[in-house]
Amino acid sequence: MKGIGTSPGIALGHVIVYKEPEIAVTKEQVQDIDKEIDRLEKAIKIGIKQIENLYEKTLKNVGKEEAEIFNAHKMMIEDPEFIGDVKETIKSQEVNAEWAVKNTADKYIEMFENIEDEYLRERALDLKDVSKRLLRILLDIETMDLGSLEEESIIVAEDLTPSDTAQMNKDMVLGFVTELGGKTSHTSIMARTLEIPAVSGLKDITNKVKNGDFIIIDGKEGIVLLNPSEEEIKTYEQKKKDYKEFQLKLEDMKGKESISKDGVKVEIAANIGTPKDVDKVIENDGEGIGLYRTEFLYMDSKTLPTEEEQFEAYKIVAERLEGKPVVIRTLDVGGDKDIPYLDLPEEMNPFLGYRAIRLCLDRTDIFKTQLRALLRASAFGNVKIMFPMISSIQEIRDAKKILEEAKEELRKENIPFDENIEVGIMVEIPAAAVHSDIFAKEVDFFSIGTNDLIQYTLAVDRGNQDISYLYNQYHPGVLKLIKMTIENGHKEGIWVGMCGEAAGDEKLIPLLLGMGLDEFSMSSSSMLRARWIINNTSKREIESMLDEILSLPTAEDVEKFIDEKILG
């Protein structure tokens, strides 16, 4: 069976099928509104206590960063807007608390699930976790205790919430297999942190296996073998041994340069969303931040974040990187990322709508506040500014004009900033790649955003499961756009990076090196592996293969070529 490998490693063991008890909620008309409000408030207090216990347990057994998810859960269960909507539903519809919680949560969950950004989409899982907790308390439902596992097991479930993973007896969990979830889900992040192999996206797996079945999971390849043969068991036991030995080699990469076999130096950087993510960047010896997503500041606030709040968030990261580059992307919200206080219009096609740089150039008050904060932070480190979703020269010029106005204001106020701060753009729209020879004359760097570049080039909504098979980073058309962008950037003397998922793809890293990519930005957990690949690859050898690779007709042919001629 083939799923999505979400946490690398090999696990062999017996299955425990984890199924949540069914939560059946019926709509009931009530007369005593105050009683329902009181039931809700008591459930919230119990839920808060449970979440606080989970925070302490995760802090002790896993780490501070992973425990922070429960602070987010606590904020959700106390959120005045969410709880206010639940109470209003009880009052206006005269319904039971359970129905009001479910109805309100479903509305918010749908909003999050329609967000394009995969990381933000996963917040729907957090809200499901919190709302289910409230419903279980209100309905007095007991759940299976994963903390009482007494034998080493592989957990098979429809999905695992952060609460599920926090209460597990980690010493007894060999691996996770789930029907739902992706690489950015909290369960996957937790699995990678604990170095537990995990595979997701295996439809109906909970009905295909039973307690006691023996399975093998390959968390890198996304492979699950049910009741394997003796020969398969021997093969994967050796793979498990080889994997552990390779992990030790990766540790040796710390402190080394990212330099190819033929002496070409590149930069391995990280993508982050909040200042707390910097811990993992430092732990994994990152050479910089290639993408700091600033939208979290806006989405986690009830009002527009002030210049001072933004400045502090950017300054912390700049200081902690101690002179290493920190590329900060300006606000990338709108359309698919709803922020209530911005009162954004509903759109037929939000992916192509009023968002990112388009919103910022229209709402210059919001944009200039952020630019002032970014400039002020540049006095404390090697900050670079990056504009997202650029499709025209005029957008670059208009954005740079507002940046110059912000600089002039700070000069008059005698506030220091880096006068030579680098300004770049994300190349994520096909027009930007095709026109990159002209765009390169206007900026100091490019960063290729492959997530959207692939989506727009192939006209595939990557969130649509029915056509997700069409979304493929090995597509020759996509690779040609990437190569064109790198070459055009270099002709004008600017550096070119990549901050999409493809930058951390083990199969694509050699190709990108051969194309001349200067900076690879990815999740912190992928950086040492990327450095090992770079250090064991000759740029010149890959470069000599590029014409042949780019002449191949299909993505499948490209991937096969890489497997056989480069990795084989």
Overview features:
single chain; 568 residues; alpha/beta; Glucose Oxidase, domain 1; Enzyme I, Chain A, domain 2; TIM Barrel; 3 domains; eight-stranded parallel β-barrel; 25 helices; 15 strands; globular
Describe the model.
- It is built from 25 helices and 15 strands.
- It is α/β, with parallel strands linked by helices and 568 residues long.
- The protein folds into 3 domains: 4-18 and 152-231, 3-Layer(bba) Sandwich (Glucose Oxidase, domain 1), CATH 3.50.30.10; 33-139, Enzyme I, Chain A, domain 2, CATH 1.10.274; 252-567, Phosphoenolpyruvate-binding domains (TIM Barrel).
- Strands 8-9-10-11-12-13-14-15 form an 8-stranded parallel barrel, surrounded by 5 helices. Strands 1-5-4-3-2-6-7 form a 7-stranded mixed beta sheet.
- Strand 14, helix 21 and strand 15 form a beta-alpha-beta unit.
- The model has no long low-confidence stretch (mean pLDDT 89).
CATH superfamily of the largest domain: Phosphoenolpyruvate-binding domains
Measured on Cα atoms, how large is the radius of gyration? Answer: 25 Å
Quick one: how many beta strands? 15
Looking at the overall shape, the CATH architecture of the largest domain is: Alpha-Beta Barrel
Supply the helix-strand structural class: alpha/beta
Please write the CATH class name of the largest domain: Alpha Beta
Strand content: 5-15%
In total, the number of domains comes to: 3
How are the strands of the largest sheet arranged? 8-9-10-11-12-13-14-15
Q: What profile does the largest beta sheet have?
A: 8 strands, parallel, barrel
What name is given to the CATH topology of the largest domain? TIM Barrel
Percent helix range: 40-55%
Tell me, briefly, the overall form.
globular
Mean pLDDT: 89
Distance from first to last alpha carbon: 23 Å
Low-confidence stretches: none
* DSSP helical segment count: 25
